[in-house]
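Example 5.3 — U8 snoRNA-decapping enzyme
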Amino acid sequence: MPKGSSESETNGGKDPASLRDGYRTTFEQNLTYSVPDDEKKDFVPVTLEVASTEYKSYMHAVHGMIYCFGECILWDRYKQSGQILMQMRCDGMVGFPGGLMDQDYDEPIVDCLNREMAEEINLDLEKYKFLQSDYLLSHVNHRKKLVTHFYIHQVTEVEIREIEFSTLKAKDWGHETFGTIRVPLFAMDDGFRGFPVFLANRFAGNARDQLLQGIVKCGLLSQKECDVYVKSFEEYIKRPHT
Ligand SMILES: O=c1[nH]cnc2c1ncn2[C@@H]1O[C@H](COP(=O)(O)OP(=O)(O)O)[C@@H](O)[C@H]1O
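Solution (predicted structure tokens):
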């Protein structure tokens, strides 16, 4: 038998049945939190203090948005004032890097975020660590007994490219995450293709709302610009689909 292929070598001698049960528990728990039926109305804004006290017993998830400023013109036509990174998740939904916090540890939220960033996108924490001052907002979903926390972190144009390149070496690349993607922050001449069509993706949790709030907060789009794109997106999803 080749090295590493026997059960005792691969699981440290533990009973394979108990390992499978442990795996199944985690897996089933994840299924509960990851079903793609999240609705915007289910996520209610909550302060960090209330989230950490009143809803301490809920599951907590933390996600982060990396962004930069820098004008970029596509085909001499469509202007973007910066870039935002999201990711294609293995379940086909779009989300931010991050994940569920382990309830057994009293780990600070931002530390959990940085750990997930290193695992999912291979973020170099010596250079690009998220700070508590990057915290933006939290939401509670009573139906799922879930709290989501959201951070945004600015880097430079050169740095965002470096981050994108190094994601391919992430531990979770090709498993949990299928790679980072840039958010198209413009609309083409038809008013739909670009950001409105991007918004029509299926987003995990309240990632779409986090994105829209993050964009305005960091100043990549004004609230008014964002509202126009959201209106186009709402029109777009009503169109018959071929
Ligand atoms: O980018 C996101 N923003 C907000 N909520 C998210 C995002 N991604 C996932 N979620 C929510 O958090 C829950 C757990 O997230 P995720 O699936 O990333 O954790 P896991 O990778 O630890 O299983 C999901 O059920 C979903 O409701």
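Remark. The longest strand covers residues 59-74.
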